Amino acid sequence: MLRDLHNHTHASDGSLSPIELIELAIERGVDELAITDHDSVAGVLALRKQADDFAINLVEGVEISAGWGKHTLHILGLNIDPEHAGLSSFLKLQQQKRHTRALEMAHKMQKAGVEQAVADVEVMLQEQNMVCRTHLAQYLLDNGVVNNFGNAFKKYLAKGGKAFVKDEWFELEDAIAIIKQSGGVPVLAHPTRYKMGSNQLHELIQSFQKMGGEGIEVCYPNIHPGKKNLLANWAQKYNLLGSQGSDFHSPDKPWALLGKFPPMPADVTPVWTAWQ
Ligand code: AMP
Ligand code: MN
Ligand code: MN
Ligand code: MN
User: Fold this and answer.
1) Domain at 194, CATH number
2) Do 111 and 193 have their domain in common?
3) What's the whole-number average pLDDT of the chain?
4) Quick check: 218 and 187 in contact, CB under 8 A?
């Protein structure tokens, strides 16, 4: 049984529609697929409207951006109710924050010499579901402002970059609470990607659990085997469920292939026991 519990569609910064994602997942032998767009359930809601039965077990999810001190964290909500009123209002506010941030970044880009940035981003905001930093990075690359995607973040969009705008997401506690209210399991996504030392990460995992967090991602692409063992130990120690997923965005991003990540250690209680 292959379960991939972290995936994006074009409802956020993925390149595929929800149906295309499902088709690719079936092709790759995935049996259970979670759709977890950044701060949006538009993809899973669109699927609910389709009468089709899919040859795959679908887990409705979301990946919420949240603040913890100076850090931005990503919290997966797995098996949420995407029609929950409180969650809908919460995500609507996140969308507004994203809209404002994209425009502020466009102004900074224009100030830094990217002509037309404001007008172009205004068009993007009208034409697509959401404008993430990934889209802005692609825009900078397409317009020859940078020579590769990584540099778009380094020189413009990441902290220290010319167009960086500080996130104003809800706090970690609020993200955990709204996921639980909507019936979902809150899971700390890719814990080793937050540029924290081991001590601070340990502190984060303990705080996350105290705030009501229920799981952590243990298995994801490129995780160092030693770090995977460390996360597995913490999952057991703090009674947290273990999750796994590719964080798939697009078929042309070979570092995150749908259905590909290291196996779950046998001594970790897997997150799917929560909905099986
Ligand atoms: P946002 O949520 O709009 O701030 O965008 C964050 C998304 O940008 C992440 O989910 C990644 O998909 C992508 N991202 C962040 N940092 C980088 C980076 N250095 N290189 C490539 N993609 C990145
Ligand atoms: Mn993304
Ligand atoms: Mn993430
Ligand atoms: Mn993700």
Assistant:
1) 3.20.20.140
2) no
3) 97
4) no
pTM, two decimal places: 0.97
Ligand 1 centroid to Cα of residue 150, in Å, is 10
Asked if residue 79 and residue 145 are part of one domain, the reply reads no
Q: Using DSSP bridges, classify how beta strands 215-219 and 241-244 pair: parallel, antiparallel or unpaired.
A: parallel
Q: Does the structure show a pLDDT above 70 at 23?
A: yes
Question: Which residue, of 107, 127, 157, is where some domain finishes?
Answer: 157
Q: Quick one: tokens of 24?
A: 């690719």
Q: pLDDT band at 51, cuts 50/70/90?
A: low
What integer pLDDT is reported at residue 200 of this predicted model? 98
Mark 219-233 as b/e (b = at least 16 C-beta within 10 Å).
Answer: bbbebeeeebebbbe
- Do residues 96 and 214 both lie within one domain? no
Q: How far is the CA of 162 from the centre of ligand 3 (A)?
A: 22
pLDDT at 135 over 80: yes
Whether ligand 1 lies within 6 angstroms of the CB of 133 is answered as yes
For ligand 1, whether the C-beta of 36 sits within 6 Å is no
The yes-or-no verdict on residue 90 having pLDDT over 70 is yes
